[in-house]
Write a structure and sequence with these properties.
By secondary structure, the chain is an alpha/beta fold. The protein has 14 helices and 13 strands. About 40% of the residues lie in helices and about 15% in strands. The chain is globular and about 65 Å long. The structure holds pyridoxal-5'-phosphate.
Amino acid sequence: MKIPERGVERTEIARQLEAMKRDDGDIAGARLFSLAYPTRDDVLEVAKEAYLAFFSENALNPMTFPSLRKMEADVVAMALSLLNGPEGAAGTMTSGGSESLLLAVKTARDHARKTRPQLREHGQMEMLIPVTAHPALLKAAHLLDVKPVFVPVTDAFTADVAAARALASDRTILVVGSAPQYPHGVIDPIGELAALAVEKNALCHVDACVGGFFLPWVEALGNPLPPWDFRVPGVTSISADLHKYGYAAKGASVLLYRSRALRRNQIFAYGDWPGGLFGSPSILGTRPGGAIAAAWAVMHYLGREGYLGLAKRSLEATRIIADGVRSIPGMRILGAPVMSILSFASETHDLFVVADRMQEHGWRIDRQQRPTSLHLTISPAHDAVAARFVEDLRAAAATPTGEPTGAAAMYGMLGSLPDRGMVNDAILDFMDGLQEVEK
Ligand SMILES: *Cc1c(COP(=O)(O)O)cnc(C)c1O
């Protein structure tokens, strides 16, 4: 494939783009989970209109586009107020959860360099991270040369605080907890983890990437949760993704800090460049204005009332699916999920085969390991298809499984390999080969 010598007609481009979607996950029919958060047509339209209105604007230079500066400040302020940020709290918009987490770890590292200079003689800095925390945190640790120290989880899949305490050292600079963690949708004991961080002179980051714009509605609907946001003393930063349950366009998250002084660690400045004075608050240089505008627009369009209504729909769909799963002999929900994320295991089924069968009906489900389970991130639009999902799941579970083939065989094999280095190599080979598309 080369850049065509002569340009292609717009109508032809549109036709080809549409045609290429043929084998994609079905967002409009809500037959996929976790990668898109389908809600209502009007919400999608508001996000798209705002995105297009700021399609070319660039938040790299806030002086040129005061509109974006204002919208980013508003989005951060709304998020801080939702998550009970105290007087003096601050934040930034980023391109997504991974960038928010990378910056949270960088802030912890640079804060420690400044406030605990004696750490330099103690070897590599460490962060305590539950095994269920998102791999973006490991990517951050890898990039920033901080050693991840893995905290095991209890039978409830929440971080084991006693183990964390035993693993903490005088090199600990950051304690991480999730609200909720992705694999099972349960909240780590944030209060105790934050108290441990305070004892160790470390920062405490709460990864609420998936829960930040959902848990407050669970609480508002009258379901008490253990406190996990800035109401917990010792929590120093929180990440929350707008492009998940904020229903904004992709490329939008917030990273919030208890104080501006903490946030300062995240900002990069370079005054000696011949190209001018350079300052950047995040990893990206050029930052798409559309993502900021869409987040601002959707938050205003929905309001608390709109978010509550959508949360109710997700929770209702979750109830239908959870009841359905429990009604299938052998299947059980893992842990006690607090919102619209759940996973289930089975004593009697090969769930990877069940997932392949579901995919034949258009359902894309995430496969998990340790233990083998299937995972669902449930969106508002799933309320219309939840009953159908359960029916298809029941049918898939009722068909006897032979020897696993296809994807199920691959997941089964990779899950059982004792040499995890080989698994990582297999992942690298796969990622490396992705651009060799069939014609
Ligand atoms: C989605 C998610 C992330 C990563 O966010 P991206 O936007 O995909 O980079 C981190 N933590 C949790 C708990 C998540 O669910």
